[in-house]
């Protein structure tokens, strides 16, 4: 049974840093592409970053380019999202997803279903 468990969310001030974790259960983590997505209150779910399980290629959405970094520990089955220089626009519930989510929701080939982890950027 596939299970994704996100953690690490917190209240941070603007300009702060935070690292989120997603522990995956029920599948061979290293062979799959994985994604981070987020949902701000009252808004839709949007893509944040991808990591491709085969070549390890990584892609970020434009709003987080240069500030967020996705990585994975394929031994422990943990996906990470390192975030720095956070802005108030980063306030959202963050989810990890199995598969490829992209900037175009119609192209999504990913599944998520964890509880997510709340990140609040506020002074």
Task: Detail the topology: elements first, then pairings.
Elements lengths: L2 E5 L3 E2 L5 E8 L8 E6 L5 E7 L6 E3 L7 E6 L4 E6 L8 E9 L8 E3 L5 E5 L2
Parallel strand pairs: 2-11
Antiparallel strand pairs: 1-3, 3-8, 4-5, 4-9, 5-6, 7-8, 9-10, 9-11
Q: Which spans have pLDDT < 50 for at least 5 consecutive residues?
A: none
Q: Work out the strand percent.
A: over 45%
Largest sheet: 7 strands, mixed
Q: Structural class of the secondary structure composition?
A: mainly beta
Characterize the overall form.
Answer: globular
| Residues in helices, as a percent range | under 10%
Radius of gyration: 13 Å
The termini sit apart by 40 Å
Q: Mean of residue pLDDT?
A: 93
Pattern of helices and strands: EEEEEEEEEEE
Features:
mainly beta; single chain; 4-stranded antiparallel sheet; 49% strand; 11 strands
